[in-house]
Specification:
- By secondary structure, the chain is mainly α.
- Helices cover 70% and strands 0% of the residues.
């Protein structure tokens, strides 16, 4: 039964209080900007064109509506947990309180994979987009430092990926208050660029481009929804900030649900304008939004869109790195990873070693490891976390009904069931090799837990002390 020892609310409150906790400096606006920063990136500037061209056609609007609703089921479950348990660690911490230490570790280990690969994939994408942008000014990097290690292609290290990870790590080291302000500014500019495209593009919409509206039928719409769902993931990183929020019981649900709502509206609006400006068959390009503007000879707006895309990818990377640092902090504070990693600076309460560990992991992966085939691992890790949280919120309602809940998931357990079914459907449609790699990571995690975490668990040590004192 020691494998399933659970954290009590009192224990978690003691962990997050006094000198042990992180600085409480964020409000609802900051959380909303973190959510938008995590979700609006390559999805809106790239995926909209791909989904329209290959799957849904102009009916991509329905694809984003369906996937947004499916994602909202998981978001509601996260919102209840985040308001009830204002502690770092997101789904890892929620599982510790609901299912016990072993499953919490499994989920935490899963999230380390999710965030680690997400940081690396996004950094590599940022590098590729940035290099494409500067080529327009006649600047090209030497091939050997332009991409990850691939001697066959003549590349050995992705220098730009290394640089952006270093810059954002430095931003995180300034403290949560300062770094969130920088993120707020980038997200506001990014939203402004998206709105600029919508307003300008609306003047060039031709209703004839929306016909046929559903060229691939309902099957195409649902296939598009499965792909579009992955454009929304990232909002869960917002819940990692709950320990640093001044009024988490009120602001966490607002931040999670508002950010998802804003992103859903922007995705739908961009999709409608994009497919109205240009025939959907021409949108299978790397930069469909900028391409559509060039198609209607609005090159000056296309330049702003390129800037927005760069900022979009930057904020996604920032939030992924932030989520990874807080995950390392929570697991280390519990003793399942070495305790020294969770040490905080005295003034700004910044988990310096967690940031440095995240920097090292993202730098190595994005600089030298080609991640094209591993990108799906990010998705399977996220979907697994969504399923556990959706089940957990229903279980905790039964096992601990008297806990104070300032926000409650409506229509429970229906919402939980729908979240599990939608995420489970997407998981079973991932490739076999992705499942094999996921299982290998899972086994490695179990080895690490039983060889280190189980014996160094803070909760376990406290139980031993209590037993001795009672004896």
């Amino acid at each position: 039964m020691k494998l399933f020892r659970k954290k009590s609310m009192d224990f978690m409150m003691r962990q997050t209080g006094g000198t042990n906790g992180l600085q409480k400096a964020l409000g609802a606006f900051d959380l909303t900007m973190l959510g938008v920063g995590a979700v609006i990136g390559t999805g809106i500037f790239v995926m909209t064109g791909i989904v329209a061209a290959k799957g849904a056609g102009p009916a991509i609007i329905f694809s984003f509506i369906f996937s947004g609703i499916a994602c909202a089921f998981a978001a509601l479950c996260y919102a209840e947990f985040a308001a009830m348990i204002p502690a770092s660690g997101s789904a890892y911490t929620y599982s510790y309180a609901t299912f016990g230490e072993l499953l919490a570790w499994i989920l935490g280990w899963d999230l380390i994979l999710e965030y680690g690969l997400a940081c690396s994939v996004v950094a590599s994408g940022w590098s590729a987009y940035f290099q494409e942008l500067i080529r327009g000014f006649g600047i090209s990097l030497p091939k050997v430092i332009s991409s990850a290690y691939s001697p066959a292609n003549g590349t050995y290290v992705d220098v730009m990926a290394v640089l952006i990870v270093l810059i954002l790590s430095a931003v995180l080291l300034t403290g949560v208050k300062q770094s969130s302000r920088i993120n707020d500014v980038m997200v506001i500019v990014k939203i402004g660029v998206v709105l600029l495209f919508i307003v300008v593009g609306a003047f060039y919409v031709r209703p004839s481009n929306w016909s046929p509206f559903m060229p691939y039928g309902l099957k195409g719409v649902m296939q598009g929804a499965a792909t579009a769902f992955l454009a929304y993931i990232g909002f869960d990183a917002v819940s990692s900030a709950s320990e640093e929020v001044r009024k988490p019981q009120r602001d966490m649900p607002i931040g999670i649900l508002t950010s998802l709502g804003i992103c859903m509206v922007l995705y739908i609006a961009v999709s409608a304008v994009l497919t109205g400006m240009i025939p959907y068959t021409k949108l299978n390009v790397g930069d469909p939004v900028a391409f559509a503007l060039r198609f209607v000879h609005q090159n000056w707006v296309a330049g702003f869109v390129s800037l927005g895309a760069i900022l979009g990818i930057t904020t996604v990377l920032f939030v992924m790195m932030y989520g990874q640092t807080r995950l390392f902090f929570a697991i280390s504070r519990d003793g399942l990873l070495p305790k020294g990693i969770s040490k905080l600076t005295k003034k700004s309460k910044t988990p310096t070693y967690c940031i440095l560990l995240t920097w090292l992991m993202a730098t190595v992966f994005s600089a030298v490891i080609p991640l094209n085939e591993l990108a799906e691992l990010t998705n399977i890790g996220t979907l697994f976390a969504f399923i556990v949280v959706a089940i957990g919120v229903a279980v905790l309602r039964i096992t601990q009904p008297d806990l104070k809940r300032t926000f409650k998931v409506p229509f429970l357990p229906v919402v939980s069931v729908l979240a599990v079914l939608s995420c489970g459907y997407l998981m079973i449609n991932l490739t076999g090799i992705t499942w094999v790699r996921f299982i290998i990571w899972f086994v490695l995690g179990l080895v690490l837990y039983f060889s280190y975490g189980f014996h160094h668990s803070v909760l376990g040590k406290n139980e031993i002390k209590l037993a001795k004192s009672e004896g």
